[in-house]
Amino acid sequence: VPSAGALYPLELYAACRAVEGIEPGVYRYSPEGHSLEPRRTGDVSRELARAALDQWMLARAAVVFAISAVESRTTRRYGERGRRYVLMEVGAASENLHLAATALGLGSCAVGAFEDESVNAILGLDGRTERVLLLQTVGRPAGSEVAR
């Protein structure tokens, strides 16, 4: 994803429920090692659905990605305008997730309606230095013969 000043304020988490080869749990994507770092064990999909104002598609998705931001990485250089740049990056990251899911024959849906404090707590974020800005479901489309 393009990043203003190459400051990369975004963090990516995957709340896995039904991903082949990956145990249910919350993982942080590490770009340095191109790997997933375990953050929490167990399926949190129902918790996320409740925190997302009872949007139960989150509980049925194979994985829910959470895009968070450490806005200070960008605002240190660009001041208040840096917040705008962070939001632009979140949109670009979400679009990339949509495109990758579509290329794999999967469904995807961006979710902006959720209780910030609850989602931050589920992911182990403090909500001040780093906070979730967007959730995105990925899984087999509803009605698919292999939907779970």
Which short descriptors sum up this protein?
148 residues; alpha+beta; 6-stranded antiparallel sheet; 5 helices; 6 strands
Mean pLDDT: 95
**How many extended strands?**
6
Tell me the span between the first and last alpha carbons: 30 Å
- Which residues form runs of ≥5 with pLDDT under 50? none
Using only C-alpha atoms, the radius of gyration works out to 15 Å
Instruction: Kindly state the percentage of residues in helix.
Output: 25-40%
Approximate shape: globular
**SSE sequence, one letter per element:** EEEHHEHHEHE
Q: Order of strands across the widest beta sheet?
A: 3-2-1-4-6-5
Structural class: alpha+beta
Report the sheet-strand fraction. Answer: 25-35%
Helix segment count?
5
The major beta sheet can be summarized as: 6 strands, antiparallel
3D structure, described in words:
With 148 residues, the protein is of the alpha+beta class. The protein is built from five helices and six strands. It has helices at residues 45-51, 57-60, 72-78, 81-103, 116-123; strands at residues 10-16, 25-30, 35-41, 63-69, 107-111, 131-139. Strands 3-2-1-4-6-5 form a six-stranded antiparallel sheet, with helices on both faces. A hairpin with a 4-residue loop joins strand 2 (25-30) and strand 3 (35-41). It is globular and about 45 Å long. It starts with 9 loop residues before the first strand and ends in a 9-residue tail after the last strand. The model has no long low-confidence stretch (mean pLDDT 95).
